[in-house]
């Protein structure tokens, strides 16, 4: 049974209420072009999507993004930094804190209308205060319309990559969409997801029958897999990356812009957040020694916040309330190292 609680206005109403100003739209357009160029191979820069596991409060996220904006000035010749401002949190068992979209205050109940307003203001403030436009996970495809004018990168999670609606909506996005390997780690399923996202589609979306042109910037994200016994199995190593490259080349009809982003956390690290540093270093070393590996690996996803680790309740400013993250000092050193070795 469904109990109607509150009417949620349309995406168009929220955009009209809190629009993207022209001067910030110009900044975002430039950032979008940089991200597309990395995935398409028109740039030798690396893409680094970095930030907290989930954005549970605006103030620490903005402080983090301001620091990232300053760091960006030091590395922008080598890297395209995109802050993670993830506002929907997938839950393995379907219960618990589901992110700012549903719950703008993690200590209180759901308020989706307030959540959408909070997110739009946060994303706008982030561009204004740092010069960087953000990445978010498209956990619920219908929700993407509420923020589509404010993002530069979109992620499709491991639990969603086999879902038809995620694939279809990805085909209509004109930004890089990173599709994670499914929880099983299947490379053929991952390639099929990218193929669907790169293909033109017709489907129902936001009360319309829509036609998409296909998204040439849809690409693979390797995040590790989980075996039948619940064990985390990493897949950032050379062998798996080469399997993805082979999958791209074997795809019927061909795929555009073969690209892989390495997610340094999740099942690649076993959520041991400090391991992200070692994982990134290994990938960078493989890029130095193999031209094909270097050509297809376009960057990293890194989970990081102001204070390392995690907490159950929002007591320490800038510390994750979901998965543990690297702290700022380690993050800064790691990003500078990536830039040096890119």
Describe this structure as you would to a colleague.
The chain has 342 residues and is of the alpha/beta class. The chain has a single domain, classed as Aldolase class I (TIM Barrel). The protein has ten helices and 14 strands. It has helices at residues 11-17, 22-40, 58-75, 112-130, 164-170, 187-198, 238-250, 275-289, 291-296, 328-341; strands spanning 46-51, 79-83, 134-137, 151-156, 177-180, 202-205, 208-211, 218-222, 225-226, 232-233, 260-263, 297-303, 307-310, 319-320. The strands form four sheets. The protein has an eight-stranded parallel β-sheet. The longest helix has 19 residues, at 22-40. The radius of gyration is 19 Å and the shape is globular. The chain starts with 10 loop residues before the first helix and ends with a helix.
Return the average pLDDT rounded to an integer.
96
CATH topology: TIM Barrel
Shape: globular
Largest sheet: 8 strands, parallel
Count of strand segments: 14
Strand order of the largest sheet: 2-1-12-11-8-5-4-3
Q: Could you state the CATH homologous superfamily?
A: Aldolase class I
| Poorly predicted runs of 5 or more residues | none
Order of helices and strands: HHEHEHEEHEHEEEEEHEHHEEEH
According to CATH, what is the class?
A: Alpha Beta
User: Percentage of helical residues?
Assistant: 25-40%
Number of helices: 10
**Could you tell me how far the N terminus lies from the C terminus, measured between alpha carbons in angstroms?**
53 Å
Rg over CA atoms, rounded to whole Å, is 19 Å
**What class, by secondary structure content?**
alpha/beta
CATH A-level architecture: Alpha-Beta Barrel
């Amino acid at each position: 049974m469904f109990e109607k609680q509150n009417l949620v206005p349309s995406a168009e109403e929220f955009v009209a209420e809190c629009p993207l100003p022209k001067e910030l739209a110009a900044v975002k357009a430039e950032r979008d072009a940089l991200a597309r160029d990395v995935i398409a191979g028109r740039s030798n820069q690396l893409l680094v999507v970095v930030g907290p596991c989930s954005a549970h409060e605006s103030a620490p996220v903005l402080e983090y993004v301001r620091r990232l904006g300053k760091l960006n000035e030091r590395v922008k010749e080598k890297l395209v930094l995109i802050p993670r401002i993830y506002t929907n949190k997938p839950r393995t068992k379907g219960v618990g804190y589901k992110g700012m979209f549903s719950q703008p205050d993690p200590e209180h109940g759901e308020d989706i209308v307030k959540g959408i307003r909070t997110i739009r203001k946060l994303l706008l403030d982030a561009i204004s205060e740092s010069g960087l436009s953000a990445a978010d996970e498209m956990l619920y495809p219908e929700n993407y319309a509420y923020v589509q004018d404010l993002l530069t990168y979109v992620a499709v999670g491991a639990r969603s990559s086999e879902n038809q609606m995620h694939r279809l909506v990805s085909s209509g996005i004109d930004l890089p969409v990173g599709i994670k390997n499914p929880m099983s780690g299947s490379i053929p399923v991952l390639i099929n997801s990218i193929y669907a996202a790169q293909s033109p589609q017709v489907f129902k979306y936001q009360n319309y029958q829509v036609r998409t042109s296909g998204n040439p910037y849809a690409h693979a994200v390797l995040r590790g897999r989980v075996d039948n016994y619940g064990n985390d199995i990493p897949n950032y190593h050379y062998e798996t990356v080469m399997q993805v490259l082979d999958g791209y080349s074997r795809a019927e009809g061909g795929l555009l812009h073969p690209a892989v982003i390495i997610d340094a956390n999740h099942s690649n690290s076993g959520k041991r957040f400090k391991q992200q540093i070692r994982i990134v270093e290994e990938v960078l070393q493989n890029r130095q020694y193999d031209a094909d590996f270097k050509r297809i690996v376009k960057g990293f996803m890194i989970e990081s916040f102001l204070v390392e680790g995690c907490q159950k309740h929002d007591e320490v400013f800038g510390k994750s309330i979901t998965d543990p993250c690297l702290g700022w000092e380690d993050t800064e050193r790691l990003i500078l190292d990536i830039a040096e070795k890119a």
